[in-house]
Amino acid sequence: MAKNKDLMDPETLPYRPCVGIMVLNRDGLVWAGRRIVIPGDEMDGALQLWQMPQGGIDKGEDAEVAARRELYEETGIHTVSLLAEAPDWIHYDLPPHLVGVALKGKYRGQKQKWFAYRFEGETSEIAINPPPQGHTAEFDEWAWKPMAELPSLIVPFKRGLYEKVIATFRHLAG
């Protein structure tokens, strides 16, 4: 597909199937990483760069398996227990200036299946830069954040998605 965003109708593009991962510590705070900005990606030009881990679901891959894989690939976190799965897929649309550019120009946004986990390991297992097994670093900093702060830390076009995720998992914060 050509990357000519002037001729592209977002309605004709599919949503990329992905997983989102909320990791809560024993105090009910949520893991968030500060994204490394890559020119032309969906975060390019954004001031709010903190987000929870997320990533694509491989063809034929179970969503919960994908969530654990993405969590490990992006953060090194593997000592977790599943707390909850969002009952529905949650969508977001790219803003018009990123359609045909971000997400390799193939998608209008993402549909995400969200999972919440309790982190049961030691902070020494968290490895973001470099992440484990030679994966490309996506974050340059991480912190435990109050769940309610997350929508104000993400790029504006994902804010509604984060509000839905928080509404789904709010009861887990304690």
From TrEMBL:
Sequence ranges assigned to domain Nudix hydrolase in this UniProt record: 14-167
GO MF assignments: bis(5'-adenosyl)-pentaphosphatase activity; guanosine-3',5'-bis(diphosphate) 3'-diphosphatase activity
Keywords, sorted A to Z: Hydrolase
GO biological process: nucleoside phosphate metabolic process; ribose phosphate metabolic process
E.C. code: 3.6.1.-
Main EC class the enzyme belongs to: hydrolase
CDD domains documented for this protein: NUDIX_Ap4A_hydrolase_plant_like (cd03671)
Annotated Pfam families: NUDIX
Source organism, top-level taxon: Bacteria
UniProt record similarity statement: Belongs to the Nudix hydrolase family. RppH subfamily.
Alphabetical list of PANTHER family matching this protein: NUDIX HYDROLASE 26, CHLOROPLASTIC (PTHR11839:SF22), UDP/ADP-SUGAR PYROPHOSPHATASE (PTHR11839)
Its biological purpose: Accelerates the degradation of transcripts by removing pyrophosphate from the 5'-end of triphosphorylated RNA, leading to a more labile monophosphorylated state that can stimulate subsequent ribonuclease cleavage.
Protein name, entry field: RNA pyrophosphohydrolase
Origin species: Phyllobacterium phragmitis
